[in-house]
Structure formats: C-alpha cells, structure tokens
Amino acid sequence: MNVTVRARTGDVQTIAVELEAAEVTDYLRGFYLMTAQQAGLHPEPGLTSKQLVERECNLDEVGRAASETVAVRATPAVLDRAGIDAVGAPDYGCHGYAQEGQPFAFDLTIVPKPQMELTSYDPVEVPHQTHEVTEEEVDAFLAQVAAVRNLSELGTPEQLRQRAREDLQAEADERTRAYQRFIAADALASRLTNPVPDAVFAAHYAEITQDFRASLAEQEMTEEDYLRERGLQADELKHRLMSQAREQLRQGLALDALARHENLKLTTAELKEFLASMSEGRPDELLHTLKEQGGLRKVEETALRAKTNDWLVRTARVA
Question: Could you tell me which residue ranges the Trigger factor C-terminal domain spans (predicted)?
C-alpha cells in the first residue's frame, strides 16, 4: 500500500492511495463471497464466487460496487498509515475498476478531526447522586423472574433476594456513573473556545444518519415505519439526529483537549481491557486484527476518551 497525503484544501484533506495487486485480490475475494451469499447464489462445481456473481448480476454495477468496497475496506489502514483522524465517512474517487491480480488506485477525501482548546481546564462540577435499591424493587424484580422461572430452582428465598439486590444495585451504580460521565463531559464541552466547524459537523451528521438508516435496514424497518411507531415527524427525527451529532462532537473534542492538556495516555493494558469488552474476552486477537487491517487509531481514540471521561469524573467537584 502506497499512501500520499496531498496538500490540505480548506476543511478537507485528500489522500492518494495505490494498493498492491495482492491486497486488491484479498479484498475482492471477500467482496464476491459476501455478494454471492447475499444474492442467494449457491456454489457450483468449477465456478468461483466471482464467476457466479458476474454471471447473475450487471457487470457495471458489480464493478462499481467491488471498487468502492475495496476502497472502503482499505480506508482504516490508509488512515492509520497516514496518521490522520477523520470525522465522518470519506468520499472516494476510484481510478477505474478494481481487478484481481492488478494494482488499484483511488483518492480518499476526508474531513480531518480538528484540535480544539478549552477556556479552562479546572475541575468540572457534577451532582451528588446515589440510588439505594429498595425492597420493593427487589420484590418487583423477583416477580418478573418468577413469571418465567421456578424460583425454587435458583436457591433459597434469602439467596435469591441477596443476589437480586446485588444485581440491581450494580445496575443502579452503573447508571449513576454513566449519568455523571455525561454531565461531566457536557460541562467540559461548554468550555470549548470555538464552535465545531460546519464541515466537521456536516461530516459527522451524515455518518450518524447513514448508520441510523443502516440500523433500520437490518431490522427490516423503513424510516416511515420508525416515525409512525414513535409518533414523530420527519423534522423531529432530523432535529434529534442533529442534536446527537452536535453533542457527540462537542464532548469528544473537549475530552481530546483535556487529554492533551493533562498528557493522559493509554497504556497497553488499558487498551487491551477496552478491547476485551469488544471481543468477548479476546483482546490480543482483536488487537492483531486492527494492526493488520487498520482501525487501531479509531479504537485508541474511543478508549482514550473513555479514560479521560472517567478521570474527569474522579477529579470533579461534587455538588
């Protein structure tokens, strides 16, 4: 993979990429296999997935989809190689169609993540909040369990109540921590010296809108179905997504600024602990995949923001 970072133009950065023939072949094999499966094409003796897809589908459409897929799958490795953090989904300009056994070139146009500063790095203030689980909550929880299980099979009444109390308290404590993390990050974000640049907001909003629609598609639900079920108008949904995009950006960029100011770093152990929560306890395997296929910078960003948010809460003034 050859990566050339071109001169930045305004709010966007263009990266020229040339993939080696072996890299292109690996990406395309995965594309054709997945496309054949999604199209319900059954394996036939003597035919590859590529041949099956090309026989049954429009060649121009397949060529465009294959080329874009190669570019999309290569992008995390490209950004890691270039050392650039991007906001939102990139735009792609492919030079011809990707072909097995041949190099493939494309341009990647991104909106780089800005570095922003805060008016103050003093501790923020978070409200004092605790919740002690009541016996009524334990009763209600056990009643729900009893509706689907025979409680006598799960232990004595005393054991059940103690276990339920501990589980409910753990959930309540985590809700409190999540609330304090949000309040602390929101307070920190109010100290940004400048508003989020329009291009950065537009890129992130486009990405979360795309992710939202993809989530609906996985549930076989249309946007109209979603609006009808929740009694929303299209403008209300757009406003909610815009608010979500704005808050995610403000809080994330504020946490980045605090991490730089306090020189907070992510240790290998902390990174693996974060990866363990994403990989069903196989952090080393996931770390190897991220290093090989790209995407490590993005995961490190998320993990460091989480660490910084926890640090922010620990050092906060409790009202």
Answer: 158-313
Distance (Å, whole) CA 49 – CA 69? 16
Q: What is the distance between the alpha carbons of residues 310 and 249, in angstroms, rounded to a whole number?
A: 18
**Per the structure block, which two tokens stand in for 311?**
């640090």
Nearest-angstrom CA–CA distance, 259 and 13? 24
Residue 226 CB partners (closer than 8 Å, separation 6+): 216, 232, 237
Contact present, 137 and 282 (Cβ < 8 Å): no
- pLDDT on residue 44: 83
**Of 145, 150, 243, which Cα lies nearest the Cα of 189?**
243
Say whether 220 sits in a helix, a strand or coil. coil
Chain centroid offset of residue 50 CA:
30
Count of alpha carbons within 13 angstroms of residue 312, beta-carbon side: 33
Measured over the CA atoms of residue 274, residue 280, residue 281 and residue 283, the dihedral's sign is negative
Return the domain boundaries, the chain. Answer: 2-112, 125-318
Considering only the top CATH level, what class is 125-318? mainly alpha
- Identify which of 162, 186, 210 has the alpha carbon closest to the alpha carbon of residue 313: 186
Per-residue pLDDT tens for 114-167?
999 999 999 999 988 888 999 999 999 989 888 887 877 778 888 889 999 999
pLDDT given at position 39:
79
- Which whole-number Å values give the CA distances from 267 to 126, 284, 285, 304, in the listed order? 27, 14, 17, 9
* Interaxial angle between packed helices 283-293 and 59-82, expressed in degrees from 0 to 180 and rounded to the nearest 10: 110
The continuous run of DSSP H or E covering 17 comes out as strand 13-19
Rounding to the nearest 10 degrees, give the CA dihedral for residues 213, 215, 220, 224: -40
Q: Does domain 2-112 have CATH number 3.30.70.1050?
A: yes
Are the C-beta atoms of residues 105 and 20 closer than 8 Å to each other? Answer: no
Give pLDDT, residue 62.
Answer: 84
